[in-house]
């Protein structure tokens, strides 16, 4: 099969303000066919507003949005385009009184050649709960049903807003597997998440949104590399003040009996550390994890 390199989504310098408060400030992101883009950011960063703007649910003040190579005019989305999109609703927007089967039936009825009720129940893994009301499902079961409903129209591009919110670790991993399988079937996916591990596990590309601006974008590996730091772990009797005074140290954390320093020049820091404390033990130097990279990126922006 030939690789498909068509950009299914291209967002260029998007601006949006609510009551003159800027919420999106020149946001540009894109997504190649068959890939997963994760939009990662803290509360209030503008993730939901960005997705809503792409879907035409909120009117933007400036910038361009193209879907499947077609530039979108204003907040109108054609019915042919909507047939190609799948959106995972938030739990609060689903009707609590409908049964699982009724929800599946409703969504299946929206599409000409969509999935059947039986297929949707199977994706959600809720065949045994088909006649239970949505409101009585567990949090994880609700999320699984909403994920299945997003696929009702056999979409080419799916938007998942916080898909594993409130799920326990096992349920989260199971849904990650389904998201991977969806990607393998050729579907392109945009997901928003607070969970760094989720973005790292699933995404081909991550856009870090902070205060309405993209502060970093790239593959998980590229993003980590943007932070040139290393983590230095050890046991030492040096004080916080002494450790923070070591060359190239930008961060200090105490973890029970050991400390973790983030350094922008690990060799220099380690040399000075060993000179200052000859009894340093359990010394370990590691590349900065994506979590540190994310924290550094978002904290730098807040300070700036
Ligand atoms: N309809 C609205 N009217 C006014 N302000 C809004 C509206 N919708 C969102 N905002 C504001 O825009 C900012 C971004 O909100 P948004 O929901 O896009 O962030 P988010 O990154 O999705 O946050 P979270 O992770 O908490 O869901 C917030 O300050 C929010 O209060």
From TrEMBL:
<dbReference type="GO" id="GO:0005524">
    <property type="term" value="F:ATP binding"/>
</dbReference>
<dbReference type="InterPro" id="IPR003593">
    <property type="entry name" value="AAA+_ATPase"/>
</dbReference>
<keyword id="KW-0813">Transport</keyword>
<dbReference type="InterPro" id="IPR003439">
    <property type="entry name" value="ABC_transporter-like_ATP-bd"/>
</dbReference>
<dbReference type="InterPro" id="IPR027417">
    <property type="entry name" value="P-loop_NTPase"/>
</dbReference>
<dbReference type="InterPro" id="IPR050763">
    <property type="entry name" value="ABC_transporter_ATP-binding"/>
</dbReference>
<keyword id="KW-0067">ATP-binding</keyword>
<feature type="domain" description="ABC transporter">
    <location>
        <begin position="9"/>
        <end position="236"/>
    </location>
</feature>
<dbReference type="InterPro" id="IPR017871">
    <property type="entry name" value="ABC_transporter-like_CS"/>
</dbReference>
<dbReference type="Pfam" id="PF00005">
    <property type="entry name" value="ABC_tran"/>
</dbReference>
<keyword id="KW-0547">Nucleotide-binding</keyword>
<protein>
    <submittedName>
        <fullName>ABC transporter ATP-binding protein</fullName>
    </submittedName>
</protein>
């Amino acid at each position: 099969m030939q690789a498909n390199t068509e950009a299914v989504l291209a967002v260029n310098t998007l601006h949006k303000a609510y009551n003159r408060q800027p919420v999106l400030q020149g946001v540009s992101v894109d997504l190649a066919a068959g890939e997963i883009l994760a939009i990662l950011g803290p509360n209030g960063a503008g993730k939901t507003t960005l997705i809503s703007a792409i879907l035409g649910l909120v009117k933007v003040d400036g910038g361009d949005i193209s879907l499947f190579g077609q530039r979108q005019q204003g907040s109108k989305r054609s019915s042919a385009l909507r047939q190609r999109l799948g959106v995972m609703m938030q739990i609060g927007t689903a009707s609590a009184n409908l049964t699982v089967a009724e929800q599946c039936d409703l969504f299946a009825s929206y599409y000409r050649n969509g999935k059947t009720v039986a297929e949707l129940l199977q994706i959600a893994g809720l065949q045994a709960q088909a006649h239970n009301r949505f409101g009585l499902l567990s949090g994880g079961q609700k999320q699984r049903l909403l994920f299945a409903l997003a696929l009702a129209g056999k979409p080419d591009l799916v938007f998942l807003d916080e898909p594993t919110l409130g799920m326990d670790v096992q349920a989260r991993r199971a849904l990650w597997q389904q998201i991977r399988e969806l990607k393998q079937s050729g579907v392109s996916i945009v997901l928003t998440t607070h969970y760094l591990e989720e973005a790292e596990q699933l995404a081909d590309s991550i856009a870090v949104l902070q205060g309405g601006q993209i502060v970093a974008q790239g593959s998980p590996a590229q993003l980590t590399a943007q932070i040139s730091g290393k983590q230095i772990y050890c046991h030492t009797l040096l004080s916080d003040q002494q450790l923070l005074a070591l060359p190239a140290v930008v961060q200090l954390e105490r973890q029970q009996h050991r400390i973790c320093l983030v350094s922008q020049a690990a060799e220099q820091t380690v040399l000075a550390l060993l000179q200052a404390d000859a009894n340093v033990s359990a010394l370990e130097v590691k590349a900065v994890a994506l979590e540190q990279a994310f924290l550094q990126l978002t904290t730098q922006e807040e300070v700036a």
